[in-house]
Amino acid sequence: TPTAVVIPAAGRGVRLGPGAPKALRALGGTPMLIHAVRAMAASRGVSLVVVVAPPDGADEVKSLLDAHALPGGPPSGSWGRTDFLVVPGGSTRQESVRLGLDALPPEYGIVLVHDAARPLVPVDTVDAVIDAVREGAPAVVPAVPLADTVKQVEPAGTPGEPEPVVATPERARLRAVQTPQGFDRATLVRAHGTVTDDVTDDASMVEQLGLEVVVVPGHEEAFKVTRPLDLVLAEAVLARRRL
Ligand code: CTP
Ligand code: MG
């Protein structure tokens, strides 16, 4: 079954601080989005990448992708065996993913959704997700064990106020979820057509349909660049790879 990846890259990156949209910020001198697209194109199973660009940045992103194709390489819209499409995004991640799904040609039966903000995910993680969907799971998420103990609190109305603890879930049973998340296409399209709540990952929409979601091992280098310290870590990981 041909596999496509939707890369939501339309966010502004408020938590990273002022500057260009997060996906276009440089990492080792190259925009984060380009790293993310390369990470997907590195998997032999991926034949199409749909980039969901900042709402007014689709033309800029298209030029950027063409500029990073191999010199003298394939025509516009392709990096060799991986084709790409660019569509403008929406005001929430969920809306951006849906706009990416709407642009998918009919032949793609498996869809991965990967955050542009996870530029360093290893190809083995991508392949593991694709393999699990091919083996029949309708929804697959890569995830890692937690380092910190997690507490559920009653959020305070005012920032900085003490917050009462409600519960402490057993850490050994918790997982921090990453991307790419992989889906049977029809299942993901149905989830996006049905679930309207605010959610922070695609798999939770499939859970809300009552379908099974499975976890496969993620990777520590698939962390999300969210705050300024994450950018420091990402630069260090990249520098270590280039040694
Ligand atoms: N995203 C998107 N469209 C949006 C919001 C987010 O495509 N309207 C994408 C981001 O570009 C990112 C991914 O969803 O690749 C994960 O979101 P997050 O890390 O929260 O990025 P931002 O929303 O850009 O960051 P922040 O929440 O700090 O503003
Ligand atoms: Mg966000």
Automatic annotation (TrEMBL):
Gene3D superfamilies: Spore Coat Polysaccharide Biosynthesis Protein SpsA, Chain A. It catalyses: 2-C-methyl-D-erythritol 4-phosphate + CTP + H(+) = 4-CDP-2-C-methyl-D-erythritol + diphosphate. Signal peptide: none annotated. It is an enzyme of class 2 (transferase). The record marks R171, K224 as: Positions MEP for the nucleophilic attack. GO terms for molecular function: 2-C-methyl-D-erythritol 4-phosphate cytidylyltransferase activity. It comes from the Bacteria. Pathway: Isoprenoid biosynthesis; isopentenyl diphosphate biosynthesis via DXP pathway; isopentenyl diphosphate from 1-deoxy-D-xylulose 5-phosphate: step 2/6. One of its GO terms (biological process) is isopentenyl diphosphate biosynthetic process, methylerythritol 4-phosphate pathway. Keywords: Isoprene biosynthesis, Nucleotidyltransferase, Transferase. The record marks R15, K22 as: Transition state stabilizer. Its EC number is 2.7.7.60. HAMAP family: IspD (MF_00108). Catalyzes the formation of 4-diphosphocytidyl-2-C-methyl-D-erythritol from CTP and 2-C-methyl-D-erythritol 4-phosphate (MEP). Belongs to the IspD/TarI cytidylyltransferase family. IspD subfamily. This is 2-C-methyl-D-erythritol 4-phosphate cytidylyltransferase. It comes from Streptomyces coelicoflavus.
